[in-house]
Amino acid sequence: MDKDGEGRTGSNLKKAENELLMEESRLKSLVEILQTRHSSIPEALDFALEKAIDFTGSKVGYIFHYNEKTKQFTINSWSKKATEYCNISVAESVYDLENTGVWGEPVRQRKAIIVNDFKTRDPLLKGYPEGHVELERFLSIPIIRKEKIVAVVGVGNKGSDYNESDALQLTLLMDSVWNAIGLIGSEEALRESEKKYRGLFENSMSGVVITEMLTDENGYPTDYVFLEVNDEFEALTGFKEEDVIGKRVTEVYPGIEKRENTILDLHRNVALSGTPSVLKYIQRI
């Protein structure tokens, strides 16, 4: 093999080695991101951004949420170093796509954008506000969900040129992160829903009971177990929470299964029909 061939082989091996190292770094970052407990989505994204900056060898970065209906960006995260270097006011947090320069290109072109020399007359460049952190190199990717761009992630000022491998690894990392924050969002929504439910449940002026139906071998409802009751239940029935929770209604009200127009019938009708049911008259038991 001639020297040129040996040189190309060595270069290819070095490139492959660098890509493996980056892949390993991305996976380590992802594991750390997923294993770190975050209380909110912005906090999780701040953490993910710092990891993305580290493994790409960048110095600054940002995450903007994007709304395709309004065509506007909203700031979620600035890297710590970006806020140190940047002297412009960050009070403005919403930007129109039509007024953006190169950092709006991932949305306009729907793909990763790489600029390795901000001093050239690149047609994509429109400059940036006075006082903004000075960029030398830049990589930005869109985050796409269900064919809609939901965010843009950008990193800048790597020590060497950004390449397609950087773009791919950043996309893979942030795509996984976005899946993870979806779970955080679901948990937040669930907690908020539970909070609202708990308030309604505890402050209701009516007796409220949550139960689990029990059926026979044919699937016919024969009994139910008390899971939760509110304070008004005690006021109406005289039973305290500890008197009924975990017990069957047939234990709490012996012989109820032999009577008609009882609360057991009410629960049975709801279980069988799947629709709300009201008894005009319920016998005292």
From TrEMBL:
Gene3D superfamilies: 3.30.450.40, PAS domain
Pfam families: GAF_2 (PF13185), PAS_8 (PF13188)
Top-level taxonomy: Archaea, Methanobacteriati, Methanobacteriota, Stenosarchaea group, Methanomicrobia
Protein name: PAS domain S-box-containing protein
InterPro entries (UniProt xref): GAF, GAF-like_dom_sf, PAS, PAS-like_dom_sf
Domain PAS: 193-253
